[in-house]
Amino acid sequence: MSIELYWEDFTVGRRFELGSHEVTREEVIEFAQRYDPQPFHIDEEAAGRSVFGGLIASGWHTASMVMRMMCDGYLLRSASLGSPGVDNLRWVKPVRPGDVLRAHMTVLESRPSMSKPDRGIVKSKWEVFNQNDELVMSMEGYGMFLRRPAE
Question: DSSP 3-state assignment of 103?
């Protein structure tokens, strides 16, 4: 994949639509069995008796699904250098099998690196909604991107 997006393309206020993903029962259970085997993520009967009233995806699974949406939405065609971290991760509403998640990213801040002139730092906010337009997850974080090379 070719690089289309450099630090200069992440201007404050720019919004990237990240597509959608339908959550399946199988992926909820598979992820949870491997990484977060709490009963309300892996056992439909136990989940039904829980405060959630049914099977729900792990919050970490939701974040992972959004990470894939980010890659497909912009990261894989950008000059990304990774991220120093995420802040304010919030799981607002449970994600259930059958939900269709959609997400967008909005650039909050953008500044050149003081120590490395070939790159810049972008602070963004990601918001994730279900098919009913209910916010299910939000987070803020930073990305590092190379600056556009001089022509």
Answer: strand
Contacts of 56 (CB under 8 A, 6+ apart): 28, 40, 41, 47, 94, 95, 96
Instruction: Examine residue 106 and state whether it is found in any structural domain, yes or no.
Output: yes
To the nearest 10 degrees (0 to 180), the angle between helices 59-73 and 25-35 is 110
3-state secondary structure (DSSP) of residue 133: coil
CA distance 103 to 21: 9
Task: Match 């990237």 to its residue by tokens.
Answer: 16
Amino acid symbol at 136: V
Average pLDDT score, the chain: 97
Residue 73: helix, strand or coil by DSSP? Answer: helix
pTM, 2 dp: 0.94
Alpha-helical (H) ranges within the chain are: 25-35, 39-42, 44-49, 59-73
Nearest residue to 50 (alpha-carbon basis) of 37, 63, 59, 41: 41
Whether 1 maps to a domain, the answer reads: no
Domain residues for the domain of 54 are 7-146
Q: Mind giving me the DSSP string for 87-102?
A: EEEEE-S---TT-EEE
In a domain, 151, yes or no: no
> What are 90-130's pLDDT values in tens digits?
999 999 999 999 999 999 999 999 999 999 999 999 999 99
